[in-house]
Amino acid sequence: MKIMTKNNWCTFLLLSVLLMTESVAAMGQNVKGRIVCNGKGVAHVAVSDGDSTVLTDRNGYYSLQSDKRNGYVFYTLPRGYEPEVADGFRPRFWAALGSSDKSVTEIRDFRLVRRKGSDNYVMIIGADTHLADRARDVEQFRGFTSALDRERENAGKSMIHSLLLGDLSWDNYWFANRYALPDFLNTCREQRYSMTMWPVMGNHDNDPSVSDGEATDFLCSAPWRRLMAPNYYSFNLGKVHYVVLDDIYYKNEREEGAKYKTGVAGSRNYDGLVTDEQLRWLEKDLSLVADKSCPLVIALHIPVWKLDLRTYAAKANLKNGTSERLCAMFKDFKEVHIVSGHTHINYTAHPEAFPNVTEHNIAAVCATWWNTGFLTGKHICKDGAPGGYSVWQVKGKKLKWTYRAMTGSNVDRQMRIYDMNTVKRRYETDASLRRMLQRYTKRTDYATYDDNVVLVNVYSYDTDWKIQITEGGKPLEA
C-alpha cells in the first residue's frame, strides 16, 4: 500500500478543485456537447447560440447557458478542418435545439474532418438563385450546378467550397407555386450540388405569411433558422475568417386595399440593417481572431455600400448608420472584403473612410430572375453581364477573384464591346425599337449617340483598374 506524500496530496487537492469547478460551472448550463476529430476532442473552438459564445476545453467539451431564443447552437469552423457534410453540400456546423424550455438540458455533439493543405483553396461566391418554379428556373438552375461541377474538376485536389449570398428562394411564390426553402434544398439534392454550401439569408428567404408586428422580422426568419442554418455565424477556411450576417429587417407591412399572392400577408417590405443583437455577437466573434493581418470576409445579402454612378464614390446603403458602425468594427483588420448580392449587377466599392474595406457586389446566378434565359435563351443580368458567379482563389493570405459566366461558349470573357455606329443605325431604322422607346420613355435612345463611339461593358469593373482600348495598336481616347 502506497502512502500519499505531501506533494501528492497537494496535487490531488488541486485536481479535485479543478474538477469540482468545471462540474459546478457545467451544472448551470443547459446546452452542452463535445467537438471531436477522429474521436479526439478539439480545443479552443468557439461555440455560440447567437448570443453567448464559449470555447471548447482541452478535451473538446463545451457548455453554455442559453435562452434558446434562436433555437440552435453552432460552432465556428477552426483552421485546418472541414465540417461534416450532409447530402453532399450541407455543412453540419450547427444543430437545432429540441426544446424552448430553458430548464431542459440538451446535448449537441459535432465532428470535424481534418484537412491538410487547407490554406490554399477555391471559394465560389454566387448570389440570388431565386428559385420559385417559374420561367423554367429549376431547369435553368442546372446550368449553375453543372458550372459547379466544372469548377470542382478545375480545382483538382484543392479544397473547394461555395458561398451563396441570399435570395435562394422567392417569398412571393412560396405558397402560390408551392416552392419554398425545402424545395430549394430538394432541387440541390436532385441536381447533386457538388460542394459545401455556406448559405446567407436574403430578403426573399423570409416567410411572407407572418403579419406585421413587433416580432415580424424574427418570426419570418424562423423557417430559415429551422431548416437552412443560423442567420448569422462564422467559419475559418485556411487563413481567412468568414462572417455571415443577416442584414434584412423584414417588416411585411400590409397596405390598405392591396391584393397579395396566395399565402402572403403583407407587402414583403424590409429595411437594410444589421440588428444590435448581431453586432454584439460579431464583436465577440472578431475578438477571437488572433491574427488581424489575416483577411476578413463579410458575407451578407444587401450591399453595405452603393456607388454614385457619376463619381464612383461609395455611399452608405444600410439604415441606422449600420454601414459605418459595421465597418468601424473592422478597424484592427488589415484587409476586409464585403461580398453582397441583391442588386443583380456587379460593382466594386471602396468607402473612403474605411481604406481597409472593399465591397464586391456580385451579379446574380438567376441574372434577371431567369427571365432573359426563358424568353430569349440568353442569360443576361441587369447591367448587361452574363448571369454568373465569382471565383476566388485563396493562397494563404492572398486573395484573387474573377467573375465567370454560368453558361456560354466562353465563360471566362470579362467584357462586351459594342460598335455604337452599328447600334445607332439599328435604333434609327428598326420600327419595333422606335415603338418600344415611345412606350418606355425612360429607356436610352442609342440613336442619339455620337458617331464613331465604342462602348465597353467590363462586367466587374473596379476603379483600381486601368482600362485601355486600342485600334490598330494605338490607344483610343476615353
**Can you give the helix content as a percent range?**
10-25%
Query: Number of helical segments?
Result: 10
Question: For this entry, what is the oligomeric state of its chains?
Answer: single chain
Global structural class? alpha+beta
What amount of the residues lies in strands? 25-35%
By CATH, the superfamily of the largest domain comes out as Metallo-dependent phosphatases
- Name of the CATH class of the largest domain: Alpha Beta
Largest sheet: 6 strands, mixed
CATH topology of the largest domain: Purple Acid Phosphatase, chain A, domain 2
Tell me the CATH architecture of the largest domain: 4-Layer Sandwich
3D architecture notes:
With 478 residues, the chain is an alpha+beta fold. It has three domains: 30-113, Carboxypeptidase-like, regulatory domain (Immunoglobulin-like, Sandwich), CATH 2.60.40.1120; 120-405, Metallo-dependent phosphatases (Purple Acid Phosphatase, chain A, domain 2), CATH 3.60.21; 417-458, no CATH class. 22% of the residues lie in helices and 26% in strands. It contains ten helices and 31 strands. Strands 1, 2, 5, 7, 11 and 12 form a six-stranded mixed sheet that branches. Strands 16-17-20-23-25-24 form a six-stranded mixed sheet, with no helix packed on it. Strands 15-14-13-26-27 form a five-stranded mixed sheet, covered by helices on one side. A hairpin with a 2-residue loop joins strand 1 and strand 2 (40-41). It is globular, with a radius of gyration of 25 Å. The N and C termini lie far apart (94 Å). The relative contact order is 0.10. The model is unreliable at 10-25 (pLDDT under 50).
